[in-house]
Amino acid sequence: MIEGFLSLYIFMLAAFVGYEVISRVPVILHTPLMSGSNFVHGIVLVGAMVALGHAETGLETFIGFIAVILGAGNAVGGYFVTARMLEMFQESKKGQ
Amino acid sequence: MGFLIETSYLLTAILFILGLKRMSHPRTAPAGIVWAGVGMLIATVFTFFHPSIVGNYGWMLLALAIGGGLAWYTAVRVAMTDMPQMIAIYNGMGGGAAGAIAATELLKQHFAIPPAQQLATVRAAIEAGADLDTVQDFVLHADGPSGFIMLLAVLGAIIGTVSFSGSVVAYAKLQGLITRAIRLPSHQLINAVMFAVVVLLGLIIVGASEPNAFLIMLFFLLALVFGVMMALPIGGADMPVVISLFNAFTGLAVAFEGFALNNSAMIIAGTVVGAAGTLLTQLMARAMNRPITNILFSSWAAMGGPATEVTGSMKAADPQDAAVQMCYANKVIIVPGYGLAVAQAQHKIWEMSALLMERGVTVKFAIHPVAGRMPGHMNVLMAEAGVPYDLIFDLDEINNEFETTDVALVIGANDVVNPAAKTDPNSPIYGMPVLNVDEAKNVLVVKRGQGKGFSGIENHLFFLDNTRMVYGDGQKVAAELIAAIKAF
Prior knowledge:
Chain A is mainly α and about 100 residues long. Chain A is about 75% helix and about 0% strand. Chain B has 2 domains: about 1-295, no CATH class; about 320-485, 3-Layer(aba) Sandwich (Rossmann fold). Residues about 300-305 of chain B have low confidence and may be disordered.
């Protein structure tokens, strides 16, 4: 039971962290940040790997296989679109 | 090994949070995504040694290669203008993964057997002459998730699956594969009933003593259809808010599946994204001055009464006159909109701005929060053209400056500069914060033709006495402006 509550505390604190991290973001970074947070939930990949790794039946293996494909797509795609967008932000050169 | 994996997940969580924090400032942002990326890499590598993973390594590597390869191939190729729909599709994949994880967990679901009952069963088995292997097998499988955890898994399954199919529809709409809002008779009622059935099925699945594959499949199928039905009636202009909402959904779904798998990295990362995504969705909806419920459950056209008649006429100007006007100005504010990006004119406009700045004209860029297809999307497009971010200002920063501005150049923007939002209570966009372009001494509007914008609302700005319309394709007009400024 303590373990269950511990998870809920983690849930609550993480929610505050997410709220705090975003609340001071300038509008110009909203799209990259949405993309960045999209990348972060790509962590679902590790869960997909576990699901595939302990699949017992053919159906479970198939679904787990799809899960890993989707999770990898989320993580890799999210990373590269975010990185590409952020690379483009630059300050004006001195003297302009 | 368990200790090592937990440590790696802890490290990943720290890197994610620090990475997101760095992403909140333009200067540190590029490093931020790299930090988060390192975290993801650590978690993925160490997960191969997870004690719950007992096989299927080959399939795992193959799936990683297929999913990762396809995503990499598309992500490095997509044009910046198409970024929102790519974010939608990658987000949908995450939601789908969460749903699929839930499916495997539900298919093998069994509850924990209380210790007293375990002891009784073992005693009975031994008295009946069972051998040690049978007892061991039973005890090892007696552990399982609690009913509460299974409930979270089902909740995550619904949210993730809806996010998956809804995101696919969002992608199709932004990509132009679905061009109009589709709405069935009593659409919201059908949706409400369908949602209730999905939740009911979920509860039945959690309550069942043995997993029922048919019910589980039906549950997921209905959740998929519900996601499609939810996204179909929403218009293209509102899609970014919906994508942001689905992003928060996926985060939450990942967190819930994290509870089901007892995986702390998923719980923390998912929850952070769930909260951040919810806030981001609120900020976007506020920028459009529309409550989220309004976006989800009604359409643009359904709002407001008959709009006020516009008086006056549109007055045209040719690019040469416009260029001369800007050359004589002390201060020019450029208001770019999505039309600029569609015409691929952002590089030309920046070239023009640089020429004006060489002549001593102060040039600033004003970007409305919802310009482009997504809040901040326009900033990305301007950054791509090489415009330094410290020349770009958002609504609150620059709105007082229009009064003292000689020329406001509106190019490809429409609703976000419509003064009707301030003056006409019957306008569908009444109350939406707009850029005060009408307060500038002179307004130049570059526009393809005389038609209405994305939302189909008449723009009062175009009819003002101090407004001149420069008709033509954005790219062509920009080139003519450059030529005229050079010749001046």
